[in-house]
Amino acid sequence: MVSVKEFQEIMRRIYFNKDSKRGAEDTHKWLEDEVKELGEALQNNDIKAIENEFADVFAWLTSLANVLEIDLERATLRKYENRCPKCGSSPCECPFRKRRVK
Amino acid sequence: MVSVKEFQEIMRRIYFNKDSKRGAEDTHKWLEDEVKELGEALQNNDIKAIENEFADVFAWLTSLANVLEIDLERATLRKYENRCPKCGSSPCECPFRKRRVK
Fold first, then answer.
1. Whether A4 and B76 lie within 8 Å, measured CB to CB
2. What angle do CA A53, A59, A63 make, to 5 degrees?
3. What is the rounded CA–CA span in Å between residue A94 and residue A50?
4. How far apart are CA B102 and CA B99, in angstroms?
């Protein structure tokens, strides 16, 4: 088992030197590319590629958090600790929406 | 502290009913939108919005993993356990690249 915070620290040890040189904007672009690749793996229904891209998306998300000095675990638990932040329930009781409405 | 696996389980309890109804393709679209919103928050340099969007991206990533029955923690540690999967070192010794080259 690894905590979200520990995984972010692992990524810091491996990549912070490069991530900080690249900066937030380009690290975010890379994250976007990885999410796109995850979508392509989904389209191809390739389970090994899908698992691989999940790892990459999560790794780049923590890299970006490191560049910005954001504690991903704290930010996440603050919003999602055991209930939906919108309706306050678990399971969520908000109306079902298939697509995003802004 | 929360492990990656535990957080994925929390998301399952809160959202799996809706996530499974929505399906992988639309859940991935939602994840893409959240990554875009994180980029907008970065542009605006709004720290509260940035933290909020980090939480959302991670939440939607685990939602998508739940729909696909992927263990995000296992997939991630398999690829990134304590060293760069490309060069095998920590810190990573791969050549620095600012932008993605496919």
1. no
2. 140
3. 29
4. 10
Task: Identify the CA nearest to B48 among candidates A102, A28, A78.
Answer: A78
Q: A69 — contact with chain B (CB < 8 Å)?
A: no
ipTM for the predicted complex: 0.96
pTM of structure: 0.96
Give a three-class secondary structure readout of B37-89: HHHHHHHHCCHHHHHHHHHHHHHHHHHHHHHHCCCHHHHHHHHHCCCCCCCCC
- B46: contact with A, CB 8 A cutoff: no
Token pair in block for residue A39: 């979508």
Terminus-to-terminus CA distance in chain A, angstroms?
Answer: 36
Whether chain B has a CB inside 8 Å of the CB on A49: the answer is no
Tell me if B39 and A59 make a contact (CB, 8 A cut-off).
no
Tens of pLDDT, residues A27-68: 999 999 999 999 999 999 999 999 999 999 999 999 999 999
Answer yes or no: do B98 and A26 touch at CB < 8 A: yes
**Least CA distance to B50: which residue of chain A?**
A70
* B49 and chain A in contact, CB less than 8 A: no
